[in-house]
Amino acid sequence: MIKEIYFSGFRNLKDKRVKLSRGFNLIYGQNAQGKTSFMEAIYFASTGRSFRTKKNNEMIKYTENDAKVFVKLENTTNYAINLFKKEKKYYKNGDRIKYVDYIGDILAISFIPEDVELVMGNPSIRRGFFNYEISQINKEYLHLIVDYEKILKSRNRFLKEKKHKNELYEIYNEKYIDLCSKILKIRKEYVDELNRYLDNNYKTLFNEEHSLKLTYENFLNMEDVYDIDKNREKISELLKNKEIYDIQLGYSNYGIHKDEYIFNLNGKNSRHYSSQGEKKSIVFILKISEVELIEKKVNKKPVFLMDDIASFFDNFRKNQIIHYFLEKEIQCFLTSTEDLKIVGKKFDVDGGMVNEEY
Ligand SMILES: Nc1ncnc2c1ncn2[C@@H]1O[C@H](COP(=O)(O)OP(=O)(O)OP(=O)(O)O)[C@@H](O)[C@H]1O
Questions:
Q1: Which pTM does this prediction carry?
Q2: Which candidate among 8, 113, 254, 329 keeps its CA 20 to 30 Å from the CA of 277?
Q3: What is the 32 CA–ligand 1 centroid distance (Å)?
């Protein structure tokens, strides 16, 4: 639970220290006042990332050279980030730490209108999303992905330069196979775990006659990828059989960077068949299912941040969602241009000023 936040030089927000509620936090105000920026500051301080940009300078106030965010947890541990145009410095209780050691302490799940791209967009969006979400609770996976990206780049360079007979290429290839084998297993187990929650949550919150399932379609086309040694064998075989394609095209055509995750609503791929409302509902269910998965796996309650709730859902769905959070006792942050009547703390954001109301 995040007890308070301090921000300075962040977007259009006026520098301020703010105390947060352990339950609901409604961030209320007219358009373009700074509601999303306030929520973004909380998410950024929690995870070291933004949910709307990858560029540091977009988060730094136009007139400043750097921004700072600082959060204090209920157990008094504090985390801070000093954000510069080309660098981020992470701190825990005043000591400088690395990003990989920063993430995972405070777990946060965000839900913003653009997230519907998770269903509608191309596979790389889903891969990027699940990479990050799995990394939040599994540091080993984070390291595997970082290594994989490096090895993939080198392997591609060798292929492009037709150096596939080179001894070093063989070493990269072995590592490549090993990383793929391990990543496949972790991805599959994560999807299995998520599926324990998805369908039930969709039925309970939105429509009891619908069924929701996430499928993991990996580049090996194999359902059972739980055995790393078996994966290794299958991948070696596949790469050998298809080596000619890799050499001809000059890059790696087979690997976990080609995997796909598919949301199926009533057995149909939602990317092609679901309505806009259903797509939003699927993403929301995905996010709350992750909250439950995290709680079970690491025994921590993530904070939940939801942008623009009023424009997203009709009244029935809005009420269902609010009840859900109340029941689960999750710390959540909702932005809205409507003054929702909910029990918790209200922040009125006006011209970048965050005012606490009781
Ligand atoms: N780096 C920055 N420095 C200063 N102002 C910025 C920066 N980035 C964005 N802004 C401005 O901050 C204002 C608030 O943006 P924000 O997205 O937080 O508004 P909002 O209250 O969530 O609005 P809406 O309800 O329309 O989504 C906007 O006018 C935006 O142009």
A1: 0.87
A2: 329
A3: 5
